[in-house]
Amino acid sequence: MITIAIIINYQDDRTAIAALLKEQEDFRVIGIGLDGYDALKSATTQHPDIIIMDFHMKDIDSLEIAPLIKCKSPSTALIVLCSHDEQNLIANVLKAGISGCLLKQDGFNHLVPSIRSVYYGGWYISKSAKNLIWDSFSPPTERDIPPFSFTPTEMGIVHGIIHGHTDREIAKNLNINIGSLRNCVSRIKKKMGLRNRVQITIHALLAGIIRLEKMAIDI
Question: Which residue from 61, 81, 183, 193 has the highest number of Cβ atoms inside 10 Å of its Cβ?
């Protein structure tokens, strides 16, 4: 069961999202709020698997509160909903450790697959926002990217993460056990000085190890 908190400014949006998610048998909405205080409270007391929140909330924005939420509940994945006017800041959201970005103007049709993707360690970006995200990343330099190359096993793990596969699915595809997979992810993070799987994916993109079109993206 995937537990979800909905932190959205507008009542109509909260109601629509809650109704959509309740149609999924493996989703359970455990909290609904409208601002950063509610998001942090949910992370602290409920530890949901996913928090869906507005890019800008009434009391704080997602860039500021994301590190606080991850501190209180490291296993909680974050998805933000933004407007067209906020697209130029989406790359900063991803760098802050948020795993999914969707445009409100696209509706909520892609919300369910985005939840499944980030729940299993993936990264989900609206198709209409992907080019802006890529353009806003600075070209990598030797100082920006540590000298590191992926082994075939590590490459397979990163591809699995991007496509939203579970650890069990990735391990089966690579013919390794779950413990070996998780140890491998930990070694990658330690070698590269990264904090989570989203940052591993960003590094792989910036270094040109993985192409943008290979990401989990709305279609």
Answer: 81
